[in-house]
Amino acid sequence: MLPGTSEGFSDVPGSGNWIMVLLTSLGVGTVTRARHATVFADYGQFYLQDVEAHNSVMRAGAAMDPARAAGGWTDDAVRLHRIGLEPHSVSVGAARSDFVETILKIYETAPALVAEAEHVVEASLEVVSGALFVLGCTESPEPDQGLQVEPGQHRVRVSYVPAAPPPSSDLDVEGAHFTYLIEMWPSFEAEPVDVLRQGPYPWAN
Question: Which residue, 22, 75, 88, 197, has most beta carbons within 10 Å?
């Protein structure tokens, strides 16, 4: 359970199993829906993605753009933000190439910051299809993994909260353990990346 929250989540070993949790007010903002999953962060990353919309843009030619940084991993994204941005997709950098715990929460309005988070960053994400996925970068999405989200612009906050390792983690893999808390709420327009709390660098192996 994350500090400062009242809801609990059972651990979900493996990357394909999801739990849907309907939540109520936590005192600041209202969680309308959430998902908790353990995903495999291959190559030290996983995605928050409108898969249908993202793939459509990539097939239309964005994937061949010579100026494109794969996964949105620019120098600033790697050194400072810890997230990379592509159309309809956020690449979340993980501290280890291993199974990692993720929690996605959809809010009506922006929630309070989690005091224990080591690194906190916000970015904008446009959802088109209405289905949002959290998945490893080498995974194929399963239909029942999608979380229904109102189409439109959303603000995304990614918080790196120190945590115990999930049961499925590999003890031989180097890197710190975090719960990757992803919080989203509707926004009127796209806004630049904003690091609200800068974690130490270097931070991952």
Answer: 88
d(CA 139, CA 45): 12
- Quote the CA–CA distance of 129 and 113 in Å, as a whole number: 28
Cβ neighbours for 66, distance < 8 A, ≥ 6 positions apart: none
Question: Can you list the pairs that 55-61 forms with residues at least 24 positions away whose Cβ atoms lie under 8 Å?
Answer: 57/87, 57/88, 58/87
Pairing of strands 131-136, 119-127: unpaired
Say if strands 178-186 and 99-107 run parallel, antiparallel, or are unpaired.
parallel
The neighbour count for residue 172, using CB atoms within 10 Å, is 6
Collapsing DSSP to helix, strand or coil, 11 comes out as coil
Write the single-letter amino acid at 138: T
Integer-rounded Cα Rg, in Å, for the chain is: 16
Bridge partners, residue 120, by sequence: 159, 197
- Cα-flanking dihedrals φ and ψ of residue 143, to 5°? -55, -35
Which pLDDT value is given to residue 9?
34
d(CA 17, CA 196): 31
pLDDT for 18 beyond 70: no
Best-predicted range by mean pLDDT (3-12, 20-29, 148-157): 148-157
Q: What is the pLDDT of residues 109-157, one digit of tens each?
A: 999 999 999 999 999 999 999 999 999 988 888 878 889 999 999 999 9
Closest listed residue to residue 102, CA positions, set 147, 64, 152 = 147
Q: Please give the mean pLDDT across all residues of the chain.
A: 86
